[in-house]
Structure to design on (846 residues):
């Protein structure tokens, strides 16, 4: 198989399907999603067989247990995929919304209409449920998509994709609206990201290496999600009990998500009351604390605390592990400067009872999500009410933060006249 | 001078300035704009001297008369620049606007805050007034910018930039918010488009060659404006007199703008009444008609008409000249298919009295501006009420069509809680 020809064929088919999807009725799109949910719940045996083949191959290849676990299509994973499809079916259709129509002095009316982006390419690793997330978001947003999953999940992805095709067909929508790259040849990725004629945007989900490589080589726009070096800052005036609960949740509720807090900044005036108590919580949970000198002098006195000296590198590190960097600052301004320098612009929070400081933090922290008195763990499309997310963007243009249906659309201008001409 | 060091220095200074600009008060930004307007109106002699040097050099270099004309800072051009600054000062500040705040079931409130993009790089040719347009839009939108004008306008650009610096200083804003690349070395462009650490987005304005080169080589997002192959489609049911006036305006009001109509599609049922009349108008104005066989058979009978056979290439050509391609179609669906195939996705219009056809055209034409019963010449930031435009985007992500203040911003998520944690 010539990979270039193959990918161009997928691209051409996607372009044609995208036109049909852009004009598809809300009902047809919702019907496809409901049918997909039904098919998922009914396909237990087929999915289990396909998944078992991926699992066996992964185990034979010596993949680590957590890697193998990520491949598993358990009943719970399947139920969650089906629920996601049903939720999307129940959401308002973003396509066709016309906003901001204003009459201009010339007499024309000018507004904006929300439209699908066209064709998106999705490149992802391991978890096969991403196949359904991407497919369902594409259907509801009226886009076509070309999916390239990890080779280790190819059998599961093929089985899931077959259901997507059935659902599209049953709703009278083109099956080419969602295409899966059937070859595991890596050259397919290189083609997918360099076909601007057929693909409008690339959404990579995976490790930093994958995303950096794609950003470097792509010839189309990339909505990228790099790392989440998230901060929680405890201000001088704060509610001690709430700060403890939020900081504990932000760091320890789960260690692996990108929205977990990796760095704790504490105002000098808050240190004496806050640090020993959060230090005890971290000590009890086995969280290693990498500290500047000032915070170390306090935290080192906490019984059982694992306290080490932070290096410069720690301030910009996303641990995704029971490790947190800790630093004292003299003001909210200093905290903001530290965050804007070291943060990955993903999610950062202030815990404060001081309103001007809260507002300054909201305005000046240059991150895709900025929070007041809430856990950074909330940075998530579902928590934000987007219904689902295709990813979390750490870019500054187009979409920042969790990207849902709206991020898969853009707005074109509409002008309504009655024979108007420009003078 | 080491160009890389020089550009990195500009980049570092821009990053620092961007932070100050993002938090600048609306008053300070408006003061800078009003002062800039005042300085422009008072700088006649200085600007005239600098401009005369560019003109002399351009004439000595044998540039064509239209090219030399584009360089001229006439009193009218200066007055228009000053008026633009005053208009921007009077516009609402886009920065800090918080929208869509909703309470989520978890208790957190989630919304979005509009923020500047950070640093944009602007690459443009000839017309020195772009220096002021870009600088003033940067100031109002709270961004920093690095401007790289054409070498043929370097003296004029330096003189204008000096005024921008004075205006920023008088308002207490950092002069590095607007920096002009002082060298005409072409390597500076190569650096500017490959410094993702310092530059968030590149906006090129100029010929197709320049923009394609920049898009190909840039390592940061590019808001690009490629060609404007705009269509006007006359439907089966239409108002003859209005259609004549709009079509004439769309094609002949000016030939060089990107929003001028380059291709005329006419429904077969409209051809007999519409084509001879518009053909006579085009004939009188010396507009060459490049026709398919069906339209040629009608237009060839018009006295004085310059009618030739269209080639396949004509359907995708932006003439920017008194030439128009003409084709008959059998339905609005056929017109839409032709436009989506050949249009540059800039601006396309339908002239119709049929409401379903108008709505179908609005929904299905995949262009940055879609119009009903209006001249394509309206596609312009000022006409749309944006106050000014930094360019017209033919991209699909981030901003489509005229890009004004809002296109130079994006939205970050804000989350307000009261000690909320994720369960």
């Amino acid at each position: 198989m010539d990979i270039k020809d193959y990918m161009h064929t997928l691209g051409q088919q996607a372009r044609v399907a995208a036109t049909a999807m852009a004009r598809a009725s809300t009902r047809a799109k919702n019907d496809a999603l409901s049918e997909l949910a039904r098919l998922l719940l009914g396909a237990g045996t087929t999915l289990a067989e396909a998944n078992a083949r991926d699992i066996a191959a992964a185990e034979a290849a010596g993949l680590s247990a957590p890697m193998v676990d990520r491949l598993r299509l358990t009943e719970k994973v399947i139920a969650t995929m089906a629920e996601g499809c049903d939720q999307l079916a129940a959401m308002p259709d973003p396509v066709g919304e016309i906003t901001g129509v204003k009459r201009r002095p010339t007499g024309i009316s000018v507004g904006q209409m929300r439209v699908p982006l066209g064709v998106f390419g999705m490149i992802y690793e391991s978890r096969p449920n991403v196949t359904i997330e991407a497919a369902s978001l594409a259907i509801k947003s009226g886009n076509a998509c070309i999916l390239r999953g990890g080779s280790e999940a190819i059998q599961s992805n093929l089985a899931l994709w077959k259901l997507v095709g059935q659902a599209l067909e049953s709703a009278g929508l083109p099956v080419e609206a969602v295409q899966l790259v059937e070859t595991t040849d890596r050259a397919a990725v290189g083609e997918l990201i360099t076909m601007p004629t057929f693909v409008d945007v690339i959404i990579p989900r995976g490790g930093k290496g994958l995303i950096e490589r794609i950003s470097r080589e792509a010839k189309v726009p990339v909505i990228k999600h790099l790392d989440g070096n998230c901060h929680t800052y405890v201000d001088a005036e704060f509610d001690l009990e709430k700060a403890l609960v939020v900081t504990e949740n932000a760091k320890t509720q789960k260690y692996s998500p990108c929205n977990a807090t990796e760095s704790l900044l504490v105002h000098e005036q808050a240190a004496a009351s806050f640090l020993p108590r959060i230090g005890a919580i971290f000590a009890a949970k086995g969280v290693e604390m990498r500290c500047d000198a000032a915070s170390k002098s306090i935290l080192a006195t906490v019984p059982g605390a694992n306290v080490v000296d932070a290096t410069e590198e720690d301030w910009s590190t996303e641990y995704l592990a029971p490790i947190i960097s800790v630093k004292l600052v003299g003001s909210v301004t200093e905290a903001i400067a530290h965050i804007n320098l070291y943060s990955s612009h993903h999610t950062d929070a202030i815990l404060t009872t001081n309103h001007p400081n809260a507002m300054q933090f909201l305005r000046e922290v240059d991150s895709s999500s900025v929070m007041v008195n809430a856990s950074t763990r909330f940075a998530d499309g579902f928590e934000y009410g987007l219904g689902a997310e295709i990813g979390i963007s750490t870019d500054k243009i187009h979409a920042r933060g969790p990207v849902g249906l709206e991020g898969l659309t853009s707005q074109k201008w509409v002008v309504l006249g009655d024979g108007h001409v420009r003078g």
